[in-house]
């Protein structure tokens, strides 16, 4: 065994040198790939996928050459046969890892959900900062970083809040029952259209929505920026504008009323006298 090990040292040294060359080649190949891809309008997620595939292909070839140097009897056919048997065992052992890997490839290939989008999935709402082959980094609106396995984003519905630059927002406004609804709707419409962040060109919808306990409710819808902050800012300005306009028009925004009714009671001591007087 010692003599065999000594005899294999030159082959092992050559194999290590081949792996070193593979490492250098992979680094230069990725740089060249970045230069070529950088001249195109390819998405950042696809760029990451191309770099990973280039690096993986070079390493697979380099490892195969190093294996042939150490084991001259190794042929491509025998290597593929061994990989086929090993892939089954590895697939069962690392099922979740391969699932996330394939999900990452598919997420990078599809056009939706780019880096910078604000998404909502499985109770997680935040901005996509990075997508790799196994996981996606989502920065929550409160600042925390959430690392989400790609399989979760691939198998579950994902709401992309910033897929377009504008989206529709809505609030409910209640007016008292003695209010002229047409007049109130006109005042609310003019107040919303006068807000600077509202896209009045896309229309403002005012619908008499519901008979509530103390009010008739209007559903007010308008278009503004699609980011969460844009939505909050537009709602803040719309609510302030509607409140001010309704106050100027002396239209009440009611709150729940509670009416207490008290019945007249007879003392227990008088019940006997009342019975005696009754014929």
Mean pLDDT across all residues, rounded?
Answer: 80
Number of strands: 8
Q: What is the rounded Rg?
A: 35 Å
- The number of domains is 3
- The gross shape turns out to be elongated
Account of the protein in words:
With 279 residues, the chain is an alpha+beta fold. It has 8 helices and 8 strands, in the order ααααββββαββαββαα. It has 3 domains: 2-93, Helix Hairpins, CATH 1.10.287; 112-160, Roll (SH3 type barrels); 166-248, Alpha-Beta Plaits (2-Layer Sandwich). The chain is 52% helix and 19% strand. β7 (205-211) and β8 form a beta hairpin. α2 packs across α4. Homoheptamer. Its main location: membrane. It is a multi-pass membrane protein. GO terms for molecular function: mechanosensitive monoatomic ion channel activity.
Which descriptors would you attach to this protein?
279 residues, Helix Hairpins, Alpha-Beta Plaits, 3 domains, 5-stranded antiparallel β-sheet, 8 strands, ion channel, ion transport, cell membrane
Write the layout of secondary structure elements.
Elements lengths: L1 H37 L5 H27 L5 H18 L1 H15 L8 E4 L2 E8 L3 E6 L4 E5 H6 L3 E2 L5 E10 L5 H13 L11 E7 L4 E10 L2 H21 L22 H7 L2
Antiparallel strand pairs: 1-2, 1-5, 2-3, 3-4, 6-8, 7-8
Helix pairs in contact: 1-2, 2-4, 6-7
């Amino acid at each position: 065994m010692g003599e065999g090990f000594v005899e294999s040292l030159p082959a092992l040294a050559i194999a290590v040198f081949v792996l070193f060359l593979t490492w250098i080649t992979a680094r230069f190949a990725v740089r060249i790939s970045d230069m070529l891809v950088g001249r195109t309008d390819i998405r950042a997620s696809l760029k990451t996928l191309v770099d990973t595939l280039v690096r993986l292909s070079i390493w697979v070839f380099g490892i195969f050459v190093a294996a042939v140097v150490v084991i001259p009897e190794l042929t491509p056919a025998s290597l593929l046969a061994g990989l086929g048997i090993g892939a089954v065992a590895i697939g069962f052992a690392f099922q979740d890892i391969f699932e996330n890997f394939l999900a990452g490839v598919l997420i990078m290939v599809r056009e939706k959900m780019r880096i910078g989008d604000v998404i909502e999935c499985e109770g997680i709402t935040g901005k996509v900062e990075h997508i790799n082959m196994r996981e996606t980094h989502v920065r929550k609106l409160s600042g925390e970083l959430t690392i989400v396995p790609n399989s979760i984003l691939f198998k579950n519905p994902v709401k992309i809040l910033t897929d377009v630059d504008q989206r529709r927002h809505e609030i409910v406004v209640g007016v008292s029952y003695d209010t002229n609804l047409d007049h109130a709707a006109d005042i609310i419409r003019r107040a919303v259209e006068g807000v600077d962040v509202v896209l009045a060109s896309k229309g403002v919808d005012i619908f008499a929505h519901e008979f509530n306990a103390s009010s008739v409710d209007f559903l007010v819808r308008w278009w503004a920026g699609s980011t969460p902050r844009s939505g909050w800012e537009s709602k803040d300005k719309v609510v302030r504008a509607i409140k001010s306009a309704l106050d100027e028009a002396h239209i009440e925004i009611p709150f729940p009323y509670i009416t207490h009714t008290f019945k007249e009671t007879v003392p227990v001591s008088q019940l006997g006298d009342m019975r005696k007087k009754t014929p």
